[in-house]
Amino acid sequence: MIKTLHFIALTMTILMVGCAPESGEPIDLDAERLAILEADRAWSETPPDVEAFVSAFADGGRLLPPEAPEAHSREDIQETASGMFSLPGFSVSWSPNFAGVSQAGDLGYSIGTLEFTADDGEGNPVTRKGKYTTVWRKQEDGQWKVVSDTFNFDSPAPTSGE
Amino acid sequence: MIKTLHFIALTMTILMVGCAPESGEPIDLDAERLAILEADRAWSETPPDVEAFVSAFADGGRLLPPEAPEAHSREDIQETASGMFSLPGFSVSWSPNFAGVSQAGDLGYSIGTLEFTADDGEGNPVTRKGKYTTVWRKQEDGQWKVVSDTFNFDSPAPTSGE
């Protein structure tokens, strides 16, 4: 009887150790969704700091901007961001309204709206509204980083007054 | 000695049963990536069939098209797709060049390029190149469905010849 109890106790211990997630904690998906939203909001504070903006991307992350080619590498992303952020009268703001996450809390996405302002050819500010989906992957250090950022505008580019 | 062997065998059996993923199979992430690419390619065959196009979306899925508002609901997506697919001279094609997937094989994304053609105001076909990120979630029946599709064009809308 005592041997049986020992056996059960030992088996349960092995099971608990063997089956525990690597982190040792159950995954709180609401917390992960909030972490993605928070990472996105923090990211939105980075422009026009190119370096801070680019640092949000994971290695291999991609930027898919409208009316411009896809940026594959960190150098490409840096070049694209530099080009955008140095437009006369440039400013951008965005805000997520939704985040989804995978069962293991390792991959997620945020969806939101944006406003992008730059001067037209005559120096008048033109603001365009848009929207985006950003895909995030949690890194080994626990930080969420961007693996894909795709955005567009809600209406075509306004034609110049010229 | 025999008791010890029995104990080890029983413990290993319990561990194997207790720790197996719910599906009973280890997750093959390469296979899941291929399944996402395949779902995306199959989806690209659906236009101009609005119903087939819309059926690729999961409940709550969103369509974020360029130069148009976001479509939140299945009805909105259907209306947006109907509008696009009925443009004079409309055709669209796309092809994924990358897919990523979560550790548990439940959430993923595809990135690719597209060509979108429609007639301009004078009846001349205008083709625009673009790119997209689509986020996919595996449904309970094992099918990958779209939870977010965001695309844009590589250059601004061509100005009309008028």
Topology:
The structure is a homodimer of 162-residue chains.
Chain A (H helix, E strand, L loop, with lengths): L1 H18 L9 H16 L5 H5 L2 E8 L9 H12 L5 E11 L5 E13 L5 E14 L5 E10 L9
Shape of chain A: elongated
Label the CATH architecture of chain A.
Roll
> How does the major sheet of chain A shape up?
5 strands, mixed
Main interface: chain pair and counts = A-B, 41 and 42 residues
Number of domains of chain A: 1
Number of β-strand runs of chain A: 5
Tally of alpha and pi helices of chain A: 4
Kindly report the average pLDDT value of chain A.
90
Strand order of the largest sheet of chain A: 1-5-4-3-2
Strand percentage of chain A lies at 25-35%
CATH fold group of chain A:
Nuclear Transport Factor 2, Chain: A
Report on this structure.
2 copies of one chain form a homodimer. Chain A is elongated, with a radius of gyration of 22 Å. With 162 residues, chain A is an alpha+beta fold. Chain A has a 5-stranded mixed beta sheet, with helices on one face. Helices cover 31% and strands 35% of the residues of chain A. Chain A has helices at residues 2-19, 29-44, 50-54, 74-85, and strands at residues 57-64, 91-101, 107-119, 125-138, 144-153. The relative contact order of chain A is 0.16. Chain A has a single domain (28-153), classed as Nuclear Transport Factor 2, Chain: A (Roll). Chain A binds chain B through residues 7, 10-11, 14-15, 18-19, 62, 64-70, 100-104, 106-109, 111, 131-133, 135, 137, 147-148, 150-157, 159, and chain B through 7, 10-11, 14-15, 18-19, 62, 64-70, 98, 100-104, 106-109, 111, 131-133, 135, 137, 147-148, 150-157, 159.
